[in-house]
Structure formats: C-alpha cells, structure tokens
C-alpha cells in the first residue's frame, strides 16, 4: 500500500478505520521532508497492514495548526484511534523501523488505561 493524501475532510475517518496509522506532515519546500519521503514510501510498501498518510502542511494549514505542528517533517502514529507517537524531524530507515516496531508492540489495554487516568486527572484539575 502506498501513502495516501490526508486532508481535514478524511483524517478522522482514516484514523478510525486504521488499526495502525502513521502521518507525515510535510511541505514541498522542506529539505528534511524530501530526505524523509523515500524512507516513508519504502516503509509504506513494506508494511502493507499499516496505513501511511501524508499531510501537505501548505495545502492543509488548518489541519496542521489543529495538530499543533510547529516543525516539519513531523511524524505521528495512531494505534486504535489513539495518538501514541508524535515527533518532529526526519528519521532514517532503521530509526523509522524501530518506531514502527514499538507502535506494533504497544500494550493497548495499558495505553487505554493511561489515557483514561489522564482524562480523569484533567477533569479533577478543572473542577
């Protein structure tokens, strides 16, 4: 599976429909983005069970702002609809493979428990 273009219109549905999804926030003028692009494409061909999306930050400025993107490239990973990784900077192939493996190996019951606890704590602070 090659990468797919992600927009504000299809982001939520794509995240919901994907067990694992990586998002690459990039721009055409960005040198590090161009360095990372072949690494990202290669991974998308290698890992057919993962959804790989690309967000053009020039075309999707509102989406990039909503995601809090301040530096590109920024890589995000979602697992079962939960954001589990977000980091700016270009990765090489072996670094990206490590991230992919780490996301695959997450104990999602533990992740959901941590998210629930964080939401409770946030609610207690607002009260």
From TrEMBL:
UniProt keywords, alphabetically: Disulfide bond, Electron transport, Redox-active center, Transport
Domain Thioredoxin per the UniProt entry, residue ranges: 1-105
A molecular-function term among this protein's GO annotations: protein-disulfide reductase activity
Cellular component aspect of the GO annotation: cytosol
Entry similarity comment: Belongs to the thioredoxin family.
UniProt name for this protein: Thioredoxin
């Amino acid at each position: 599976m090659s990468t797919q273009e992600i927009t504000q219109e299809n982001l939520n549905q794509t995240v919901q429909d994907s067990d694992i999804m990586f998002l690459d926030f990039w721009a055409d003028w960005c040198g590090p983005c161009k360095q990372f692009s072949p690494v990202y494409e290669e991974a998308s061909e290698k890992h057919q069970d993962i959804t790989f999306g690309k967000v053009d930050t020039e075309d999707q400025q509102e989406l990039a702002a909503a995601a809090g993107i301040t530096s590109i490239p920024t890589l995000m990973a979602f697992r079962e609809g939960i954001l589990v990784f977000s980091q700016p900077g270009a990765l090489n192939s072996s670094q990206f493979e490590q991230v992919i493996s780490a996301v695959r190996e997450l104990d999602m019951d533990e992740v959901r428990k941590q998210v629930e606890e964080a939401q409770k704590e946030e609610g207690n602070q607002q009260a």
